[in-house]
Amino acid sequence: MNDYIEITGVSENNLKHFNIKIPKGKLVVLAGVSGSGKSSLAFDTIAVESSRQWQAGYSYYLRNKMPNYERPAFETIEGLTPVIIVDQKPMGTNSRSSVGTAVDVAPLLRLLFSRVGNPSAGGSMAYSFNHPHGMCPDCTGLGKRLTLIEDRLFNLEGTLSDRGLTFSQFAAGWQNVLYTQHSKLDSDKKLKNFTDEEWNLLKYGEDNNEVITMIGNGTGGTYKVDYEGVVPRFKRLYINRDISKLKKGLQQEISKYIVDGPCPTCGETGLNPAALASKINGYNIADMQDIQVSELIGVLKTIDNPVGKSISRQIIETLQRMIDVGIGYLTLGRRTDTLSGGEVQRLKIVRHLGSSLSNITYIFDEPTAGLHPADADRIAKLLLSLRDKHNTVLVVEHSRDIIRLADEIIELGPLAGVNGGQIVFQGGVEDLEKTDTLTAKAMRQKIKLNTTPKEWTESLHIEHAKLHNLKNVSIDIPVGVITAVCGVAGSGKSSLIRCELTEKYPEAVVIDQKPIGISSRSTPATYSGIGDMIRKKFAEVNDVGMEWFSFNSKGACTVCGGRGVIKPEIAFADPVEIVCEECGGKRFNPTALSYCYNGKNIEQVMSLTVNQAVEFFDDPEISKKLKGLRDVGLGYMTLGQSTNSMSGGENQRLKLASELNKKGNIYILDEPSTGLHYKDIENLMQVLRKMADRGNTVIIVEHRLEMIAEADWIIEMGPRGGSEGGQVIFTGVPEDLIKCQSSLTARYFMRQM
After folding, report:
1. pLDDT digit string (tens) for 280-309?
2. For residue range 643-662, what is the model confidence (pLDDT) as tens digits?
3. C-alpha dihedral, 92 to 95 to 101 to 106, nearest 10°
4. CATH C-level class of 99-143+264-324
5. Which residue ranges does the chain devote to CATH 1.20.1580.10?
6. Cα–Cα distance between 391 and 276 in angstroms, integer?
7. Which residue, among 313, 399, 286, has the nearest Cα to 706 in the 3D structure?
8. What is the model's pTM?
9. Coil, strand or helix: which one is 47?
10. Which of 256, 273, 471, 719 lies in the 20 to 30 Å Cα band around 746?
11. SS3 for 197-225, per residue?
């Protein structure tokens, strides 16, 4: 048996065509600065190739229904095992997805009530808000009732043919024709002059609605549509359905016309009366989903029915694993789109903890991200337990504690992007600490508290906050300084800052790690506004239109459409991405490439890294934006890199760069250290310090001790998570924190000072 995963000539993304042997059955940590190539090796090479080869064992029929993977860039690979990826990617944005569904407890809970609930509502689907048998008839299982503000749909000074209907979907196109062509409605009459009869017809329709004859768009053919009043039409299309799948712009427009509140019929549970009436030991299924997991175990243990015991035992096993990974404070009914990246990752871990499989390669993406050091200790134990079951545990991580636990450390670098992609160290932790790599320096570095915090006089005030687990919290948050909000997972940090603070101060700018976009055509240059400036420079120098320097417009290669690659349809075979022969992957056509600025064409300029571009451009406005990108640690990125290939941390820093030169704003950063090496953290704190010095209020929800230590003011929530949290246990300067005996953060500070 091969004791190693052996790869030769790996060159995926920025990896520099090296050979590597990764020991099996060990805890292996991939370290290095952000952008050094860790994810390229772990996820884009090992994970992708394992999945690709695993799928090759299925029939072509099944493979055609599975995700298709292109072969990564390497020469040979040996010793692969099946791979399980545990990352921080969102589980989905569906409003009906919950913690219970994520860990597969929800079906068991429904089964439990269908067998033991009294009185029985029916089969298991009778307890589901996603099924007609179980959902509330008034809110269709959403738990919320959307109320339409009817008057906002109409402009009394307008006509049906001109600005009378304010909602864009009804104001133009065939849906507008539905109203302008009605025989009883004058399309040129101002709405304020409508009779009561006309208003009623426009708003609500009539018993026997008129059939409207429509002309097909571009076809000239006719078709008939039943007239429908504006109000019932809006309700049918946009209220009595889940609009989360609609375009963001349309969702935002719809929100202007509706008020969102709990459904009075079901009490926000989404269930019908029969499901809610069915109980076990005084609890209905909604009650059990609202009890935090650590307490729900006790409720389930009281069930003495033999059938109920058998089902509840399986549920308890999963709930106990949730407690083991530090998320026992969650409830099963909590929506997954409200969870942090760290919480999502731990939910995924729960799925695998009860597995008896061995000789599996588990790949973790920063499992300690979003975790207080106290919670991270649990994750460390779990990683070791997976290893001890004869699995290979491959971890992309920056935590010193996890690195010290590793059997093998592989550091990539020395720097990021084009200056990374090499192995700078491989071996044990003792050998690492003797070297001079960036990770080794970080391992030897002690944490230093900010002894000269910036003073403040004004504050943002929150009074009597009671959201989720907050226990009537009143607090002042300083203005014009850096405030770090810390505490264990579930202690109430996000409830206090992301919810209560933003509700009172809606002008606050939240900079999180959500993807900027999924389009391969979005780049750091386009997002930051630099792209337009560059195109303008090219246009002025060459006396042509700006559209020639966009691969989304006139400058695009005519064969690949500006994509740079072609993906031919080859049915069930492995997908192949072919570099466009016409443009050679440059994305631009020959005419666009014939124009130059300072000796480079548009493709060559977009291939520059941010650091290179700083030296290339002498325009003050372009330089300001480029230096902003460099200051947040994105100097290694090329201007034309696709934003959908960026990590959550890179997304966050790109958003941050666009805010650097603004003054007097409130900025909330959610775990800005995610994905950052200790060296990168130093640079980030310098950026945040400059923002505060300009008069901005910077609030970071953070767990990394290095960042908390450099803040001007610290707020710690706790003392624990869930029902045991929701209190402010400390406010003050960093030096005073270590004197607070009830602070868990202080204990971990003392270990590393």
Report:
1. 999 999 999 999 999 999 999 999 999 999
2. 777 766 677 788 888 777 77
3. 180
4. mainly alpha
5. 99-143+264-324, 524-645
6. 44
7. 399
8. 0.75
9. helix
10. 471
11. HHHHHHHHCCCCCCEEEEECCCCCCEEEE
